[in-house]
Design a protein that fits this description.
heterodimer, A: Four Helix Bundle (Hemerythrin (Met), subunit A), 6 helices, elongated, B: about 550 residues, mainly alpha, 16 helices, binds copper (II) ion
């Protein structure tokens, strides 16, 4: 039911006129052609990302309000985070956005060997990011910076531990929310890598790679906001 | 106003040909329903499950009105009463009113109205139903385990520190439900943008589509905020971190801001689709094009935008800045303008129309009358000084029941009657239906009008006992609730009866315009035999109107 062969040839951007239609077209039955299916997929992701902005917007607003109200305590708490590790992670994630952008381009050009290599690189970079994040979390645990569970760290006089705990709550809430998004993205890339290797994509049909790319860039941009907001408060 | 009673059009009496495949008889068995990706079948799944939730919420209301029949708290304890009104609110708002029109009528109609074979993401659509069911089951489990007593507003710090009820279970149910709304709304937005039939430009879209589109925007931009707010609430309750609890350094007003940032727009999630239904009903049964199509269409968008800027009118007595209150008050007045535009346009459409007083139109009249009362009393509440007097009284309770029950449920019932022939291929019994509409209208007003008076006289909401001088009005209200309950039960019986014994409807029993009437009833699995092409605006009922638009 989901793979009727009803393609009007030659309506796709990038479709070469001489190219024979692939044997197994992935056109779902509710669409007229692959062009419409592609448009639907990308718009769907854009709309989803709009809700995502509001999803992160709620806790970011709360964080901004308390950051303004308890700014000294928040700065003191922020100093406990490792800027080098955070910066390294920013570089790693920006690197993965580059590999994603190249993968999308390669897919459009039909170079699917490069696509699989670049997607693989993206997955490796994503895993590295999460590994560094896990390392940071374990340091936080050792230092007693886990709000509500193990918040035993010593603070210099004048710093209200409650407010520092609030900072760390938002730190974990936001970075964990981000990490969950990373995990979803990594799962998506793993599926897409498999499909690429099985030859499911062509010059005519590679929208899933583009859509996953949109998502990945968004997750990357979120981190670009989180890094200065959480790590660089003292500057 | 010229009036005429229009019998269901005789010309369309072609009986359903034996052996014709439609979406209902194409396949049988539980599997074919539980794994379907057909938007029409998913609409039926929603219809059944949402009706069940309506009955659950209604049972809580029965107990509330029984308790309030006498002044002392004699039927249930104060604690039980707190749980009853909370669960009534949670079930009715989150599991009935918010999803009902988009998920049942919207799911069924959006692809049909725009000439598409299905929604853009059929499997996501099915997933949204499973997400809804998961949320509903989690919330029901929390209710069976002991319920929740915070009020549907979950205000902190009571909900995070003092309440000894199943706050997190209920909150998780509501949170899961939010994802179901988001998936449905995303599907609608993409479908309306990308799947319209050839020639179906934006200004040829039926107004139900415009209002569904505006509703979807609100769902997409509002729901994530309540999701995150409930997560923060659960975190505070579990971990004891002062996000909202002032004793731990948090700010309870922040919770209210975040909560109402979603929950005021949520009112428009309930009312906008209802307005879309009423626009369809009014034009069909006055056999005239809608007056001021563009105004009605853009009023939906205006409501969606302005609706996001008025949430502070729930917080006039919370300690929020007076200046903020004044601005919120002004903006709340402003948001009444597009609603009023719609009411005027419906009235103007009826003017000099050939009005057929069929059941769906009776419900539309009910909507217009009750929504107007609810809207105008909303202005009373949006006035900062008056609000201090009636805040947290039965005046507020009456006001929002006029909007939600008098508005949304009336329109939903009207829409259900109007599209029932399309959904099932059968007509409902007109006489019984008119009787039902009348009972509901009378019962509704008897239930809720006395509450305006009670509130103005100072009876506070959310108490299980009250001063003896309020008893007469409370007995009236409880009596009205009995009538209202009977009114809602009646359609459940005759709708079921009509499935077997109703008259064959034919493709277009109302002689209406609109693509959904251009296909057979019930529609075939892929909606249209051939993809329709659209050459005219909607609601063209006469040669003259066709000539005017050229
Ligand atoms: Cu409001």
């Amino acid at each position: 039911m989901l793979s009727a062969n009803l393609v009007k040839p030659g309506v796709l951007p990038g479709a070469l006129p001489h190219e024979a239609p692939a044997t197994q077209e992935p056109l779902a039955s509710q669409f007229a052609d692959l062009y419409q299916q592609r448009e639907v997929a990308t718009l769907g992701m854009w709309v989803f990302l709009a809700t995502e902005i509001l999803f992160f917007g709620g806790p970011l607003t709360a964080y901004a309000i308390y950051g303004g109200r308890f700014s000294d305590d928040f700065v003191a708490a922020s100093e406990r985070l490792s800027v080098p590790l955070g910066a390294l992670n920013t570089v790693v994630l920006l690197g993965s956005s580059l590999t994603v952008a190249l993968a999308v381009r390669a897919a459009r050009l039909g170079q699917f060997r490069s696509v699989s290599l670049l997607v693989l690189a993206t997955i490796v970079l994503g895993v590295v990011f999460l590994g560094i994040k896990a390392l940071e979390y374990s340091h936080d645990y050792a230092e007693g910076l886990i709000p509500g569970i193990r918040f035993t760290a010593e603070w210099r006089p004048g710093v209200e531990a409650r407010h520092a705990e609030l900072f760390f709550f938002f730190y974990f809430f936001l970075t964990l929310l981000h990490a969950v998004h990373m995990l979803v993205g990594l799962a998506a890339w793993a599926v897409l890598l498999l499909r690429t290797l099985r030859g499911r994509f062509s010059v005519r049909w590679n929208a899933p790679i583009e859509v996953a790319g949109l998502y990945w860039h968004f997750v990357d941009v979120v981190w670009v906001f989180l890094f200065p907001l959480l790590y660089l408060l003292r500057h | 106003m010229t009036t005429a009673t229009v019998e269901p059009r005789p010309q369309m009496r072609e009986p359903r040909p034996r052996g014709r495949i439609d979406y209902l008889n194409v396949d049988f068995g539980a599997r074919s329903w539980l794994l379907t990706t057909d938007h029409k079948r998913i609409a039926i799944l929603y219809l059944v499950s949402i009706t069940l939730m309506f009955i659950v919420g209604g049972l809580f209301a029965v107990l509330i009105r029984l308790e309030l029949a006498t002044p002392p708290g004699d039927l249930v304890s104060a604690d039980t009463y707190n749980r009853l009104f909370t669960m009534h609110g949670v079930v009715m708002l989150f599991f009935f009113l918010i999803p009902v029109i988009p998920s049942v009528l919207g799911n069924f109609l959006v692809p049909l109205m725009i000439g598409a074979k299905d929604l853009a993401f059929p499997r996501l659509n099915l997933a949204s139903w499973y997400v809804y069911m998961t949320g509903a089951l989690v919330a029901l489990w929390a209710m069976l385990a002991g319920g929740v007593d915070t009020g549907w507003t979950f205000y902190t710090p009571f909900s995070t520190r003092s309440s000894h009820s199943y706050v997190i279970g209920t909150a998780v149910g509501v949170l899961i439900l939010g994802f179901s709304s988001i998936l449905t709304a995303l599907n609608f937005v993409v479908t309306i943008h990308r799947m319209r039939a050839p020639g179906l430009t934006w200004f040829r879209l039926p107004l139900f589509i415009w209002s569904t589109y505006a509703t979807s925007l609100i769902i997409l931009l509002g729901t994530p905020v309540i999701t995150v707010t409930l997560l923060l609430l659960a975190a505070e309750r579990l971990l004891g971190i002062g996000i909202f609890d002032p004793r731990l350094g948090g700010d309870p007003i922040l919770f209210q801001h975040l909560f109402w940032f979603y929950s005021h727009p949520a009112v428009y999630i309930m009312v906008l689709p209802a307005m879309g239904v009423v626009s369809e009903l009014v034009t069909t049964f006055s056999r005239k094009t809608i007056f001021g199509y563009h105004f009605v269409a853009f009023a939906s968008i205006a409501i969606a935008v302005l609706g996001f800027l008025v949430w502070g009118h729930h917080m006039f007595v919370s300690g929020q800045s007076v200046y903020a209150s004044l601005i919120f008050s002004f903006l709340s007045y402003l948001v009444a303008v597009p609603s009023a535009i719609k009411v005027f346009n419906w009235t103007a459409t009826l003017h000099k129309g050939s009005v057929a007083f069929q059941t769906p139109l009776l419900y539309a009249f009910g909507f217009i009358a009750l929504f107007t009362i609810g809207g105008l009393t909303g202005l009373v509440l949006a006035a900062t000084a008056v609000d201090v007097h009636v805040h947290d009284t039965y005046f507020v309770v009456a006001h929002f029941h006029y909007i939600m029950v008098g508005g949304t449920v009336m329109a939903y019932m009207g829409g259900l009657h109007y599209w029932w022939p399309k959904m099932t291929g059968r007509m409902y019994p007109e006489g019984w239906a008119k009787l039902g509409a009348l009972i509901i209208f009378v019962g509704f007003n008897l239930t809720f009008f006395p509450q305006f008076v009670l509130g103005y006289q100072g009876m506070p909401r959310r108490y299980h006992e009250y001063a003896p001088e309020f008893q007469v009005l409370n007995v009236m209200s409880s009596a009205g609730a009995t009538i209202l309950g009977a009114g809602y039960a009646l359609p459940m019986f005759y709708f079921l009866w009509s499935l077997r014994s109703g008259k064959e409807a034919g493709p277009n029993p109302w002689g209406a315009t609109g693509l959904e009437w251009a296909t057979s009833s019930p529609p075939p699995p892929h909606n249209f035999e051939t993809t329709p092409t659209v050459t005219l605006p909607p609601y063209i009922y006469s040669r003259k109107e066709a000539d005017v638009v050229g």
